[in-house]
Design brief:
This protein is elongated. The longest helix has 25 residues. The protein is an alpha/beta fold and 192 residues long. A hairpin with a 4-residue loop joins strand 5 and strand 6. The protein has two domains: 30 residues; 159 residues, Double Stranded RNA Binding Domain (2-Layer Sandwich), CATH 3.30.160. Strands 1, 2, 3, 4, 5 and 6 form a six-stranded mixed sheet that branches. It has three helices and six strands, in the order αββαββββα.
């Protein structure tokens, strides 16, 4: 009788382990969704460059991480709509000049987007939320790779950071686009 209890206990443990490992390795995407349609990004701002940057980074991330197949609208299981709501340059660090005027030395670029991910087959919203990301840039006009600022707060400065290059505001746009893309990918993969 003792042998039978051990056998049942081992069998039960094996079933639990394989069930959990299947779930862990499978990921957390909805079971019926294998493809995604990325609709054209709408932009309610005058910052037209962010649309192309964001579109490129999201497509590249989805392809490189092999999360979902990107297909046309008529063959997709799901649809991702992205709307750029605001792009704001906010003064972050001031310094007094010789004339006693305060000068903005560092700016914080905030970008707010809304993402809506819909399960087309079940006609169900999976995600409907706003995301805000930011990066800092220097007003001096020097290359962002030499400004001694951790522009995207990743703990790396200038030559240590692979995405700190180019003119200050352009680099900030690129960094924010990368951060938003990472957040969107994280949202897609952690929904269920």
């Amino acid at each position: 009788m003792d042998y039978k209890k051990k056998y049942i206990s081992i069998l039960y443990s094996l079933i639990i382990f394989t069930s959990c490992s299947f779930y862990s390795f499978k990921g957390s995407l909805p079971e019926n969704i294998n493809s995604i349609y990325l609709s054209q990004i709408s932009n309610a701002t005058s910052e037209y460059r962010i649309t192309n940057l964001l579109n490129e980074t999201i497509r590249t991330s989805l392809i490189s991480q092999n999360i979902l197949d990107i297909v046309d609208e008529y063959n997709s299981d799901s649809r991702l709509d992205i709307s750029i709501k605001s792009v704001d340059d906010i003064p972050n660090v001031y310094n007094s000049s010789e004339n006693q005027y305060e000068i903005v030395e560092q700016w914080k670029l905030n970008i707010k987007v809304k993402i809506v991910w819909k399960d087309i087959f079940n006609d169900k919203l999976i995600i409907d939320k706003e995301i805000v990301e930011w990066a800092m840039y220097n007003n001096s006009g020097i290359d962002v790779g030499m400004d001694n600022i951790d522009n995207d707060l990743d703990g790396l400065i200038d030559s240590e950071d692979s995405d700190e290059y180019g003119s200050s505001r352009e680099a900030a746009l690129r960094m924010v686009s990368n951060k938003i893309s990472d957040r969107i990918i994280n949202e897609l993969t952690s929904t269920w």
